[in-house]
Structure formats: structure tokens, C-alpha cells
């Protein structure tokens, strides 16, 4: 069985102490870094872009899982590979030619991910799931950290798990938004492989300990 992973989202870190927070994740039991790129068009917020990711990559000792919340992501696939992205997830809702985009991501040596907004059905991945390495199920509306978890996500995880099995796909299921110790176990039991956690980790008193607890919860 696939090991269950935790990916702290640096969106909730202290940007004035980014290196300190990256080192904390390096030393912790976390598995990946989750990096949220927002363009102020696809989502009503702007976060950070390539120069910041390049700087993060110099210190990060774990895989960089980049979540693009941008329109027309094809324009930047090559650049994200150059600055150090290992996984690159694009939004289904932002792609006109999703299959082509997935191939382009893989051509640059990255794992290809597709993120789905809460209103987007997993059924829409029926014809591409075999080409997808990672599906990011948004459990909040994208754009901001610290929002409440949407309960319908459990149903979507189960539907997606069935689709993956039915199509013999190796895609992993990642949950992004409002993840905490209260929903982590139930998400993994429903079929999730990777849990992204921003506020729950970085706004806690002891982030290293919080990551450890989350890992124990889903072991
Ligand atoms: O992509 C996003 C938000 O759009 C997420 O990755 C958030 O950064 C998760 O933050 P929390 O909900 O865990 O605070
Ligand atoms: Co994200």
C-alpha cells in the first residue's frame, strides 16, 4: 500500500522567516513541500512565483509539490521545471487542452497533477486519469489558506478512488484545504494518499510536533 504523506503548505509560513520554516520542514517528519502559486486572475489572491520558488528550492531537502492556481499554465511549464518543481499540478478549470498540458509537464521531467475545484466532478477525469500522476482534490475554494474543510470531499475521494481502480491508473489522491487532525484519518480511510496542511501546521504552537501528530494519525 502507498505510504500516506503529509505536505505542509508554505503559504501559511512566515515569509519573513522563510528559510527558518523550510528548515523546520526539512527536520520534521513531513514528506513534501506544497507550494501555492496564485495569479490574482484564476483565484482572487496573489502569492509568489518563480524567483521565490527558486530561492526555496536552494534550502528545501524534500520534494517540491507545486500547485498552480493560474490561467493558461502552459506558458510557464518549462520555467517551473527550471526553478525546481518536482510535481506540477494545474487546475482542470484553467486548461483548454488538458491532455496536451499533462504531456508537456511530463516532457519536462515532472510528475503531472490535476487539481479540481470543489464544484468540479471527478467524473470529468474519466478520459485523462490514465495520464495523471496526481489528482489534487480541493477541499476549500482555492485562493486562501485557513478556510473551513468542505465535507463533500469525502464522497469525492471515494468516487475518485473507484475511478482510479476502474481505469487501472496509478494516480495518487491529494487533499488540499482545511486539513487538520480531526479529518486526516477519515480522509485516508476514504482513499487519500497525500494531505496538504497549511494553517494547521504553521499556526500551531509547535509545528514539528503537529506534523508528527498528523503522521501518526494517518499511519
Ligand atoms: O491551495 C491552497 C489554497 O488555495 C492550499 O494549499 C492552502 O495553502 C492550504 O491551506 P490550509 O487550508 O491548510 O490553511
Ligand atoms: Co494548494
What would you note in describing this structure?
It comes from Flagellimonas nanhaiensis. It catalyses: D-ribulose 5-phosphate = D-xylulose 5-phosphate. Pfam families: Ribul_P_3_epim. This is Ribulose-phosphate 3-epimerase. It is an enzyme of class 5 (isomerase). By secondary structure, the chain is α/β, with parallel strands linked by helices. It has one domain (5-218): Aldolase class I (TIM Barrel). It has helices spanning 18-27, 50-59, 77-83, 98-107, 153-166, 184-190, 199-202, 207-218; strands at 5-8, 32-38, 63-69, 87-91, 111-116, 134-138, 172-176, 194-197. It has an eight-stranded parallel beta sheet. Helix 2 packs parallel to helix 3. The longest helix has 14 residues, at 153-166. It is globular, with a radius of gyration of 16 Å. The mean pLDDT is 98. The structure holds 5-O-phosphono-D-xylulose and cobalt (II) ion (CO). The site of 5-O-phosphono-D-xylulose has 23 residues, from strand 2, strand 3, strand 8 and helix 7.
